[in-house]
Amino acid sequence: MNMANITKKVSWSSRGDDSARGEATPLLNGTEEVRYTRQPSGGLFHISRLSTVDLEEEITSEEDSVRTRPNMIPHNEKLLSLKYESLDYDNIENQLFLEEERRMSHMGFRCLEISRWVICGLIGFLTGLIACFIDIVVEKLAGIKYIVVKQNIEKFTEVGGLSISLILWAVLNSSLVMVGAIIVAFFEPIAAGSGIPQIKCYLNGVKIPRVVRLKTLMVKVFGVICSVAGGLAVGKEGPMIHSGAVVAAGVSQGRSTSLKKDFKIFEYFRRDTEKRDFVSAGAAAGVSAAFGAPVGGVLFSLEEGASFWNQMLTWRIFFASMISTFTLNFFLSIYNNKTGDLSNPGLINFGRFDSDSVAYNLYEIPLFIIMGAIGGLLGALFNFLNYWLTIFRIRYVHRPCLQVIEAMLVAAVTATVSFTMIYFSNDCQPLGQDQTKDDYPLQLFCADGEYNSMATAFFNTPERSVRSLFHNPPGSYNPLTLGLFTLTYFFLACWTYGLTVSAGVFIPSLLIGAAWGRLFGILLSYFTSGSSIWADPGKYALIGAAAQLGGIVRMTLSLTVIMVEATGNVTFGLPIMLVLMTAKIVGDYFAEGLYDIHIKLQSVPFLHYEAPATSHWLTAREVMSSPVTCFNKVEKVGTIVNTLSNTSTNHNGFPVVIQIPDSDEPGMVCGLILRSQLIVLLKHKVFVERARTRLSQRKLQLKDFRDAYPRFPPIQSIHVSQDERECMMDLSEFMNPTPYTVPQETSLPRVFKLFRALGLRHLLVVDSENRVVGLVTRKDLARYHMGKHGLEELQLAQT
Amino acid sequence: MNMANITKKVSWSSRGDDSARGEATPLLNGTEEVRYTRQPSGGLFHISRLSTVDLEEEITSEEDSVRTRPNMIPHNEKLLSLKYESLDYDNIENQLFLEEERRMSHMGFRCLEISRWVICGLIGFLTGLIACFIDIVVEKLAGIKYIVVKQNIEKFTEVGGLSISLILWAVLNSSLVMVGAIIVAFFEPIAAGSGIPQIKCYLNGVKIPRVVRLKTLMVKVFGVICSVAGGLAVGKEGPMIHSGAVVAAGVSQGRSTSLKKDFKIFEYFRRDTEKRDFVSAGAAAGVSAAFGAPVGGVLFSLEEGASFWNQMLTWRIFFASMISTFTLNFFLSIYNNKTGDLSNPGLINFGRFDSDSVAYNLYEIPLFIIMGAIGGLLGALFNFLNYWLTIFRIRYVHRPCLQVIEAMLVAAVTATVSFTMIYFSNDCQPLGQDQTKDDYPLQLFCADGEYNSMATAFFNTPERSVRSLFHNPPGSYNPLTLGLFTLTYFFLACWTYGLTVSAGVFIPSLLIGAAWGRLFGILLSYFTSGSSIWADPGKYALIGAAAQLGGIVRMTLSLTVIMVEATGNVTFGLPIMLVLMTAKIVGDYFAEGLYDIHIKLQSVPFLHYEAPATSHWLTAREVMSSPVTCFNKVEKVGTIVNTLSNTSTNHNGFPVVIQIPDSDEPGMVCGLILRSQLIVLLKHKVFVERARTRLSQRKLQLKDFRDAYPRFPPIQSIHVSQDERECMMDLSEFMNPTPYTVPQETSLPRVFKLFRALGLRHLLVVDSENRVVGLVTRKDLARYHMGKHGLEELQLAQT
């Protein structure tokens, strides 16, 4: 049997070059580092991927061991991490599975279908509840903060000494943010940020460790409450999507591994294929709760996750979304003492745009397109700045305590900047009849019966500010206020995204866009001396918000629908679509979308919809990893244990082959078995002796695999005695006997399409006689991407 | 080489049973009939599929030849027609194709991408124009008809003799319908109906002959004008979807085969894969123009057609939809003298629902669900009646002249029934200030200043009636009028659908639903003595319309979005969704959706999203057709011509194999070649002599295949001399060298998933040594479906 290590080729241009073989050197902190010690003449840079934690030490130690230093910053954009495993989105149709499916009656399938619906309903309900909880707690905290600070300001406005108010404000904000940052940095770093990139990766098929755990959800929820109440330039909408996904992953499994509680229900759904479907529903429910956009939620899930459209699945996702927005709506209506009034469908509500007052005309279309282009440019600038900031953070701000300090610093600076701008602005507006306590007006140095409009913009929750920018009557803001606000908020938001706090970028983007959009509208009505159609700056605020958000996140159809649903008015469909399209085209020319940048910087092997356009000249032969470690149908336990224990190999699937006796040639494919399956087999000691007597007492069932899912123990935790090592293991019942295969000549786009459309994890490459010659995994495909100078190949790294 | 005929096994339960082999008997009319002459002991019914045209003769002639007569009606529901070929939604990646792709630069791909956008823009624009044309012509014709009939009625109302008015009306309508029916029945029968089932099939991958031709479009457009203006209970929305698809198929090819005009552009797109993408865009543009629902259009295309979601494709489809609704809107605004006012986005416009006046409350939800159930029941009844009617039509009304007469009859009956109901109703309503000439009020026997409301409901175009049911103030209709109207219109619409005219079922369904929904609302306000929340019956009309439409067509997400977009208000999202869901669940319990029924009655091999749930115990071995006709890499021309000319085989793909010398075993797969490719090769005489001298002067290029696409000539039209038959043909350059293969043990769901997700046409089944043992095509998979008693197998028929 061929037991050669799986060796990752570095370059297809020099196959068989042994110098390209990665040498794994265990580091002290347990991570591994691969150094590709190729000669410079090979035409490839020397790439060294360092573990981020031990960065500085490694750079010095590296100097000794290699001659040429890498001439690039050791961020991870041009690398592909090997630490991310794939999810099995293709059913493992082994004998056990088929037997179970065949035993099941038509009625059984119907029951399964019904439980899927029940789960989706539950997902929607719980997601809605969480959204409701976050919303109410944030409101309460913000209210308390407002009262405290307001009283303090009122006390000091006349007597002087507002700096004390400033300090009070900054301290309040910093402490809230500190709490949020501490729980994220020390307890669950994966809960940082909006979670959208992580969910994108999960739906794409990449297993991001700990992303759908209960602990992550807890940290996320409390983290987002702290950071929003702490006055950071963040929103609570992005984290809702992540929260929904975690809820879905939890509910659908009918147990909590963290709480060690198994309800013994929904056991059928304990596999990646089914779980993904529910996570899609959860993400959709999250979007739906965040924006009151159930259709937008469905489209978000599809845009990010779908590889194959299924009507019933989509319909279920839609159901979860609807239930989610409905639950949120219902409970908020009770909270607001308007029980039964279902008019607040999401966390953010753009308010009603009356279609008559904000109609648009044909000759405004070019203006909208210009605004789209501005949004694209500003978005690209935002992403570019954030990109460099993130690299800086990867290099220098990687210790949890540093991260907490940075978050507190940002909170303090945000408070100070806001306060300074409020202090120096003298944009007083009359206090209208309809302004209630909820609008947090601050009088400051304004005359009685007036309020400071800059203070409103800064002091409100961002959601409220967006709404007032959309709907306040013309003249509510003066242009200078808006300009200054845009400028400061832009940089604050950019600095804030990527902090070690749970927070989203949707609302800040909308706010920046709404501010400059309103400014655009006001300037326009100056130049056209205020004729009626230009009169309403709220319309331009909406378009600006769409442009800015589109320029940053680059979502397409789903964002259009989310915006339309949040607006509650389909009239703006065409302008919003045009604006988003322009923003995307202009933005893509300069920089990638924010989420894509972060995914790349994490070196995630993310698969896009299609293979790069110019990749037809690559074939499976060049892409695949080879040689492959194979097993026989009946394999010696010792061999299996050794293979699994070998830390230098990292593939998780092993072809099962029929070896031709007395032949050195690779064997003929007869199946595929996963590391996780082998682990379960070893754990249950499903061994046969040479004489074929079964040693294990009971027949292994699908349930044993499901119980171990998804946290399969590592091979090190399984003890196999020396006697047992001599036993044999019969894999034929557990392997997938019909893995997908492709011939060696298959072009990369064709391999890619098969892989992506079916959500595969391993694809066998065979020769004309069905003998295994290689294995294609996600990383082999994700390596190739379109760079500026045509097709580029990413390097592989172990961290 | 194995030259056995491709024999379709009838039953997997008795493989190798030669008695199951179909015997092809050429009939006089050129169609073929297969009789499965199995013994009754085999447990299978004796099925005889007869050509519908020669039905009666065949029944008599059949009596002689077989002993047991089939004990079932010879409709085609339990059959699968072999006459429908599949489309190649998987790229044929042969050497020529790969060479072209590899030659193309990054810039070249970008240009292609831009031309895709241009084409989508064009598709949207032209579809919008067509919608506009249909709308304006129908309005004009209806206006003329109204004036003529009105004058006549006014003349006779006082003096008596209204029967003359009736006759005038009936004759006018019948003649219009006659014109419409004649062009459909005699020139292009495929243009009958709404065209939605046909487009569903096309997007699913079934080649419906002539469905996307220019002639079909012409007949469709004029047919729909005639049938709508002729006062039938039909809508013009369904045909718009078909029209959009035809426009897309035409524009994207850069030529018209019918007009023999080749613009020499867009040649790259001349293959099924690319064409399908554009047809999706066209269908979406059609929906968008029909309902002003661009997002709904995209979702419709995805729900019906998508196998694989691609962000850029979806975005392009959305672009086409937007352009389409925008174009329609713009030109209609010019027509209505309100240039630049973009408030009429679709052919049907539900009018603005003011969100305040029609808010709903929590306790109305159960009512909505009840309405959904009613809609589901009525929909199932509608479908059931229409099913039997269609079977009746297949049996007895298959001659074109009979079809025209039936259409005229329906038109006359519709006119008579309407007239009678108007005549006997005395539901007079005061003529409001806002009613203009456009509302076609008829005074009849009402007092001056009043009008007959029944006349309004019947005399208006259905679109107007729907709108007035939604928006007319409470009290505009009395309950008896509505009840009678619902009843008559229900049966009229049911009779009308399936006539040989171009017409859609959307609007009649909406109208029926709106009528009983309004009735429901009125009754409700009676019982609750008119408290404010129940006051507006328009809300219930909307819910009723959704319920009825959902009960008939059973669309899910797309219909929800279409309804929401047509309403212009997202508030109703949740109720509409609940209603559609209930209607679908209730309806599915009793009967299938209308489109599915018609697809089944056409015996189309339609592939659903997933394999039947209980089909895990079937494997590729049982599903596949075998033995398979294979070719060698270098094959004798005579052999190829003979194989292609053999009328008893009907597979269109041939595996290319490497035969082991002096062996009877099947050869190893090395490629797959299509009938259409072989035809082009034969036509261009790409022969080599035994001595390998190339006979053809020039190297065959991809262009030659594209020029022949999509109407490849039949083999009979290609003359191959006796000398040429002795030559050889080298297939290696033209075959697809990397066809997808599966092992024999692969379960049906797995085969299905691969086949459906990648849009395959042929899937090779191989043994463990990569030798061809069978071929799976669409029909092999579509045969299995869930019946009432578990998994059922459909029989195959040649017509």
Automatic annotation (TrEMBL), chains A, B:
Keyword annotations from UniProtKB, A to Z: CBS domain, Chloride, Ion transport, Membrane, Repeat, Transmembrane, Transmembrane helix, Transport
Protein topology in the membrane: Multi-pass membrane protein
Transmembrane domains' residue ranges: 117-138, 166-187, 217-235, 278-301, 313-335, 365-389, 401-424, 480-499, 505-528, 540-564, 570-591
Principal subcellular localisation of the protein: membrane
Biased composition (Polar residues): 1-14
Annotated region (Disordered), positions in chain: 1-26
Subcellular location: Membrane
Pfam families from the UniProt entry: CBS (PF00571), Voltage_CLC (PF00654)
Database matches in InterPro entries: CBS_dom, CBS_dom_sf, CIC-7, Cl-channel/antiporter, Cl-channel_core, ClC
PROSITE patterns: CBS (PS51371)
Domain CBS: 735-793
GO molecular function, one term: chloride channel activity
Origin: domain of life: Eukaryota
GO CC annotation terms, alphabetical: lysosomal membrane
Family, per entry: Belongs to the chloride channel (TC 2.A.49) family.
The protein's name: Chloride channel protein
Lineage, opening ranks: Eukaryota, Metazoa, Chordata, Craniata, Vertebrata
